[in-house]
């Protein structure tokens, strides 16, 4: 008799201590759970073995990437329902070990193990980053981490990002398109930096060249764009050539620590600082400070997490670290501002644009889902599933204020202290 779904639902509720907010559809065709709720599809017993071997987020992620788990119905609704059971409960291995002291939970785990069957454990999906955890954020490990995320095919990123090829938060007006919102974001950065014709801009983490091209074409600025991704650099150079901007824009495969041809009038760092790491952040800020002329401006556009009561206990997101941004780290915006000031900068402005990133991510997910079969052909089913889950979950995280994104404008104040009036870039709605 087909009853795997009922058994799974009952065991999960025993172990979690709360009713499941999703239905379960199991490999034997059985279903259980609240009618009309999104369904968690358990395609095989291997999904259970993955979760048992790596309880919490990483086990669920491995099952998802491998195709052992799926969602039937709206992905956002399913993630909203699951958030209170996984991400917001902190169901990591340590928490589960503590829960297993409860006889009811321990008995449920034994029953789940019997249902999962041998052998344990399954190999992780090939899309999972594998690297030593000892020395992070060296030039070598940073290059490898960047390659894991960005060197998955420019055609795939074109499908997701659209023609703008901007892989960071857009800046939305009501009714605007993704392309117009990304153009407005680039122009906002240029306005905050006060770019003028003939100036020199360093674009750190230049991606596929969109900021460099916009600054050169619209403001007559000479730009040096740096990235660690070979595929990004090749794509950006072709775009620069096609725009006829080779006399203004140079794209390099170069680590920010190796730039030695300053000073620059301005520096943009858009969606790059998340890769730097807490131990290297002061070095990063100090290097950018040294590359600026006195009076020069830095625009640091960076995702932030909420601060915790015990910052020493902070752990990176298992799924993001294993499949999306290996070695990436998020810091509270206050920490970022402090580190910039420690490096010598005067922070002049901080603009929070969290809601803008949620909308951006939903547009990227829509692009991916609209051309899903091609995405799978371009990058494989596992990688496409990684991107769909990560972007949808991130959209919800921005909407729920679990993470944010901020543009920090900082100045290398000249010795005289007079750096002119800051740029006027915002109009406040006081109604």
From TrEMBL:
Organism: Streptomyces monashensis
Biased segments, Basic residues type: 131-140
Full protein name: Cyclopropane-fatty-acyl-phospholipid synthase
Stretches for region Disordered: 115-140
Domain of life: Bacteria
Keyword vocabulary terms for this entry: Lipid metabolism, Methyltransferase, S-adenosyl-L-methionine, Transferase
Family to which the UniProt record says this protein belongs: Belongs to the CFA/CMAS family.
Example of a GO biological process term: methylation
One Gene Ontology term of the molecular function aspect: methyltransferase activity
SUPFAM superfamilies: S-adenosyl-L-methionine-dependent methyltransferases (SSF53335)
